[in-house]
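Colleagues,

For the teaching module next term, I've prepared a clean inverse folding example: a structure given as tokens, and then the sequence designed for it. I'd like students to try predicting residues themselves before seeing the answer, so please don't circulate the second half yet.
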């Protein structure tokens, strides 16, 4: 490891990505169209070449692809490849205002966007961006920024993220960051998850948006989360065998267990008008308060 060197690859500029795309387009023999009049003249010129299939790409499509790939040339090249393959497999569908012959294929801005969206390149669900975006959403809701929360939610959903994954994270957030400050947050998250499961995308996006805004506006409390973390720490740091369950708290379904003292002197609270004095923790933990990490 001492001989390893960490190299950070920064994002390329839009101009640099566009230059790389242009080299790839040239190597593939694809012609670039910048204006409708050029489109017509270029296609007429290529009609004289016989039965050879001519592939064209709009200048606007190249610009859009360079912007959408977010500084990653590999993403841009993959997007270009998908757009070309998609058009070649369905060359009869033309979305431009011109009528093109079957020998001519045009890649437009819409084709580039559709290709990127379909393959989820705008949002890498299996890579670092997946975790970066969910972290940004979590922190935006925690910071009560409803605008940023909606932005990160939309960025994930529009990029093809599984809505149920987001909904599961919201269920966790409801108890971890809001907790008892607003007990209705958990039912809100569970309802959003169920709604997403019932109707799916794109209809369920507004359910998640409602839940995200609710959480951003809700009061926050980590009281329960912190207390439970203290309990786990107590268990992990314990030396030796764990303390036994006090006899009066044990169930006694058999006569033998009753003879051994199971359940003896247990006070059944509903039978008393006021809360009874009774110890519920093991003897060696008596008086500990996990909410304040102190002895009472």
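(Answer key — instructors only)
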């Amino acid at each position: 490891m001492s001989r390893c060197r960490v190299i950070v690859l920064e994002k390329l500029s839009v101009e640099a990505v566009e230059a790389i795309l242009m080299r790839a387009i040239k190597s593939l023999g694809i012609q670039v169209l910048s204006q409708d009049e050029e489109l017509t003249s270029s296609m007429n010129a290529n009609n004289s070449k016989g039965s050879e299939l001519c592939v064209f790409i709009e200048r606007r499509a190249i610009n859009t692809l360079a912007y959408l790939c977010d500084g990653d040339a590999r993403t841009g090249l993959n997007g270009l490849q998908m757009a070309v393959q998609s058009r070649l497999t369905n060359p009869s569908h033309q979305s431009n205002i011109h009528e093109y012959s079957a020998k001519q294929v045009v890649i437009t801005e819409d084709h580039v966007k559709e290709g990127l969206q379909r393959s989820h390149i705008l949002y890498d669900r299996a890579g670092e961006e997946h975790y970066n975006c969910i972290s940004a959403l979590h922190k935006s809701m925690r910071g009560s920024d409803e605008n940023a929360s909606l932005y990160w939610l939309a960025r994930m959903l529009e990029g093809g993220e599984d809505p149920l994954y987001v909904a599961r994270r919201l269920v966790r957030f409801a108890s971890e960051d809001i907790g008892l400050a607003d007990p209705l947050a958990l039912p809100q998250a569970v309802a959003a998850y169920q709604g997403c499961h019932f109707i799916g995308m794109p209809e369920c996006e507004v359910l998640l948006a409602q839940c995200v805004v609710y959480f951003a506006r809700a009061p926050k409390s980590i009281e329960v989360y912190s207390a439970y973390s203290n309990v786990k720490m107590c268990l992990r740091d314990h030396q030796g065998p764990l303390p036994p369950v006090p006899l009066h708290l044990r169930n006694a379904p058999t006569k033998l267990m009753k003879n051994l003292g199971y359940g003896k002197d247990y006070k059944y609270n509903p039978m008393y008008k006021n809360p009874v004095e009774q110890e519920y923790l093991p003897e060696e933990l008596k008086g500990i308060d996990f909410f304040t990490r102190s002895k009472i």
